[in-house]
Design brief:
CATH topology of the domain at 20-114 and 166-225: Glutaredoxin
CATH superfamily of the domain at 20-114 and 166-225: Glutaredoxin
Radius of gyration: 17 Å
Order of helices and strands: EEEHHEHEHEEHEEHHEEH
Largest sheet: 7 strands, mixed
CATH architecture of the domain at 20-114 and 166-225: 3-Layer(aba) Sandwich
CATH class of the domain at 20-114 and 166-225: Alpha Beta
Strand content: 15-25%
Mean pLDDT: 93
Number of strands: 11
Length: 226
């Protein structure tokens, strides 16, 4: 696997690293290199399944799987959740069209340049450090799921409770080292070059827990496939 991309997230025009991970939804390994020369691919690098926002983003990406496939674009979801825990979760919460891989050490996230935030009491140096004073003032709104704008930490707990998601010891291990991991989605062409991306990094944290609209994502996919 490539070394970390230290200058920030990969940008359009950058060559994506090869990553090789344990498959969750099938046996064996999944390597990005397997898709090169074959098809474009959308790769979503998410936090662990302990994150209710990422669970929703994963489901949203899976729901686009058939439409992406019609355009000749493959889709891969990566979660920093141990393989056994991830397989158990998706056994009871299956998602059609989901190709997923486990990366508990977040090697792929680092290789694509996604920072792992350090939470501090009051020091913010986005996107590497963020003060809890700033986090407590961040609001998130999910119509139909939250009653209104809510503190992002409170929303995190609220949605996990709503989902009945039980935090296991495996989840706690991931939270201990990667609670601040920022997520991103990268659309690669057939040669493994980034052509479009969405990450939580820009805008000083205002994108945290957000995701691109299906229309934006499918528009980007149409251009890459064309």
């Amino acid at each position: 696997m490539s070394e970390s991309h230290v200058d920030g997230p990969l940008q359009p025009g950058d060559r994506a690293p090869n990553i090789v991970l344990d498959a969750i939804t099938r046996d064996g390994k999944i390597a990005l290199e397997d898709f090169r020369g074959q098809s474009p691919i959308l790769i979503g690098l998410f936090r662990g399944l302990h994150c209710p926002f990422c669970r929703r983003h994963i489901a949203a990406q899976a729901q686009l799987g058939a439409a992406l496939h019609e355009k000749g674009v493959e889709s891969l979801t990566v979660v920093n959740t141990p393989i056994e825990r991830a397989r158990l979760y998706f056994r009871y919460h299956p998602l059609p069209n989901l190709l997923a891989a486990s990366d508990p050490e977040r090697k792929s996230h680092r290789a694509f340049g996604l920072p792992n935030l350090e939470f501090t009491e009051s020091e913010t140096e986005w996107p590497h450090k963020v003060g809890m004073d700033v986090v407590r003032n961040m609001q998130v709104e999910i119509p139909g799921e939250l009653s209104g704008p809510m503190n992002r930490l409170a929303a995190f707990d609220y949605l996990n409770n709503k989902d009945g998601y039980e935090i296991t010891e495996a989840d706690k291990r991931m939270e201990a080292t990667g609670l601040g991991q920022l997520f991103g989605q990268f659309l690669l062409d057939r040669e493994g070059i980034v052509r479009w991306s969405f990450t939580e990094v820009p805008d000083g944290g205002q994108r945290m827990f957000e995701a691109p609209s299906p229309r934006e994502l499918m528009s980007a996919a149409s251009q890459v496939a064309g």
